[in-house]
Write a structure and sequence with these properties.
Layout: H1 4-29, H2 34-53, H3 59-83, H4 90-98, H5 103-131, H6 138-166, H7 169-172
């Protein structure tokens, strides 16, 4: 247990560092929506940190962190593509208006710090996988198949929504 706390905190350090980078980008762009792009990256970053620093990382840890990293890369790329050239999301504009003056500084802890802590907490199952010494089993294989199904499902859904929005459907209402 003595080595688990420092290992867990190393993941928090990573999520905080990544969100500080995102915050600096947001200041330059005057757009805090970049936090959405960094969300999955922070989760995977914690997993990669744990994998790198763990003295007992096994096959399960490598597998789970690899899957989380692929998921994070897909999500980040999609969100970056979707938001390219767009103004700040309405929810963030409203949040910005409610937190003036000095929103730039306040966003460090109200948006980015909070998201860093939440990403770290969401990533905790990766830590469990990293420190596990149990061999890969049928449940791991089933989980990997479910992950693959989910990744394809998300990708298709994102493609369908983008096509709907580009075709003027968004002005007509909800995609069904």
């Amino acid at each position: 247990m003595n080595t688990l706390l420092p290992l867990a905190l190393s993941g928090l350090t990573t999520t905080l560092a990544l969100m500080i980078v995102a915050w600096l980008i947001s200041l330059r762009r005057r757009n805090v929506a970049i936090v959405d792009v960094f969300w999955g990256i922070a989760i995977a970053g914690a997993g990669i940190t744990w994998l790198w620093n763990s003295p007992v990382a096994g096959t399960r840890g490598v597998l789970v962190v690899l899957l989380a990293t692929v998921w994070a890369a897909r999500l980040a790329a999609h969100l970056l593509w979707r938001s390219h050239g767009q103004s700040e999301d309405r929810r963030y504009r409203e949040f910005r208006a409610r937190n003036q003056p000095h929103f730039g500084l306040k966003s460090l802890y109200l948006v980015f710090g909070l998201q860093a802590v939440l990403a770290w907490l969401v990533a905790m199952p990766l830590l469990g996988a990293v420190v596990s010494t149990a061999p890969i089993g049928s449940l791991d294989r089933f989980g990997t198949l479910m992950w693959a199904f989910g990744l394809v499902f998300e990708s298709v859904a994102d493609w369908q929504l983008a096509r709907f929005q580009q075709g003027g459907g968004a002005a007509r209402g909800v995609m069904d």
